[in-house]
Amino acid sequence: MESGVRKENNPPPSSFSLQQQQPPATNPSPLRKIIMVASIAAGVQFGWALQLSLLTPYVQLLGIPHTWAAFIWLCGPISGMLVQPTVGYYSDRCTSRFGRRRPFIAAGSGFVAISVFLIGYAADIGHLSGDSLTKTAKPRAIAVFVVGFWILDVANNMLQGPCRAFLADLSGTDHKKTRTANAFYSFFMAVGNVLGFASGSYTHLYRIFPFSRTKACDVYCANLKSCFFISIALLLVLTILALSYVREKTWSPEGSSGDGGNEEEGGEAKESTPAPFFGKIVAAFKNLQRPMRILLLVTCLNWVAWFPFLLFDTDWMGREVYGGDSSRNADKLKMYDRGVRAGALGLLLNSVVLGFTSLGVEVLARGVGGVKRLWGIVNFILAICLAMTILITKVAQSNRRYTTVNGGTHLLPPSSGVKAGALALFAVMGIPQAITYSIPFAMASIFSSTSGAGQGLSLGVLNLSVVIPQMVVSVAAGPWDALFGGGNLPAFVVGAVAAAASGILAFTMLPSPPPDIPLNKRAATSTAAFH
């Protein structure tokens, strides 16, 4: 990655050690400012939770074919792979008078609002453009929805990368504050999840906005619109408050040092020879320090473990736990819907645990002897939880209950013990999820700060180890499950193995961040070794 300020007669840093000069010490911003910026995550995650809970039925309402649906959901990782490194690179070099990160955060929030409007009003715009209400497929509405959905994913990536980089800037060289900032970001993601799932489960929210129900938009569609109105309002309010309260100094490549960028400190090392963007991306990978390479590998395996469950958790509840099916069999379909709703409750419990765990990340890390040990431990917890899905499924299948009504056999829900076990699994997985949402990003910020690299580009590169596993799992999970007769368990088993491998690497190969050093001593410290 980009090098920080160092004397010209110093040798270039080795790719297998990180024993180089630290950037000058920067004063971290007060915690209240970090919390204000981190709160933007609540508005972002509110919208994501609505996508998870409400968009799939809405897609069916518009008549989008199943083959198209898979293509649409791939836009998230594709945009993440392209947008976050690009935005990170240019936010590191932005010379706007409003600062480096704030213009991108503001633009991202504005595009999120536009995209959500397009998604919510896709049916109405399609009808005004000529879609027939009597036909299942509504091609014009589908076109509007697809455009809005792609803009939403691009905007979210434009928003989240600079937001995390802004938190790293505000934390300065205080590694503890960097971890705390990312923990608060994870906490507010949980808050957004809870708000989103709660809003999505309330079916009469459209009555607050009676104009949302139209000829082309039924009750379900109107409820989705109403949720999106609240989502837009929350995101814009949080963004305006944060960016108005927390300011940045204008960054200039001449005479600036460090990677601070907050109102106390600003700037980044002057580059002697500016390089094209794609050249910088290639150079970033070629010059990755060993700690960052291992962090990318551990993060990649961690997300290979997470994505099968994140993509198919409610489907697992509907199919394997409740024994339902999304086929036309009314009895199976009813039970599948009940299972999906139970899965939504599980996601709500997961978010609550995620929020509380996020607030205790620093305490947990001290208790187990460091953040890398904590990440290794929770990866093993994740592996156990994913393996437990097999046990819960087998118990549910062996205790399937039926009843006879009017000569017909009808499937009953699983026993209370099976339901409690499945919901407990959702809740426990909030613990490793809190660590996944905070520790890797904090470590990337610390590693890049210590090596003098740009925060935006570093976090954009880290995001590649998130979106690439998502693309692989999205494309390969279906065929992989089909090899073993269908169902979600084969993908969950792969996830359990990946989580265990991630835990082993975290314990054995991942370097520990530098120890926290008091600010008055940091300026006198010229080198920092990774253990």
Automatic annotation (TrEMBL):
Domain of life: Eukaryota
Membrane topology: Multi-pass membrane protein
Pathway: Glycan biosynthesis; sucrose metabolism
Subcellular location: Membrane
Gene3D superfamilies with a match to the protein in the record: MFS general substrate transporter like domains (1.20.1250.20)
One protein family per Pfam: MFS_2
Keywords: Membrane, Sugar transport, Symport, Transmembrane, Transmembrane helix, Transport
GO MF, any single term: sucrose:proton symporter activity
Main localization of the protein described in the UniProt heading: membrane
Biased composition (Low complexity): 15-24
GO cellular component terms, semicolon-separated: plasma membrane; vacuole
Region (Disordered): 1-27, 250-273
Residue ranges of the TM segments: 34-56, 68-91, 103-121, 141-159, 180-202, 222-246, 294-312, 342-365, 377-396, 420-444, 456-477, 489-510
Protein family membership: Belongs to the glycoside-pentoside-hexuronide (GPH) cation symporter transporter (TC 2.A.2.4) family.
Name of the protein in question: Sucrose transport protein SUC8-like
The species this protein was found in: Populus euphratica (Euphrates poplar)
Gene assigned in the entry: LOC105135132
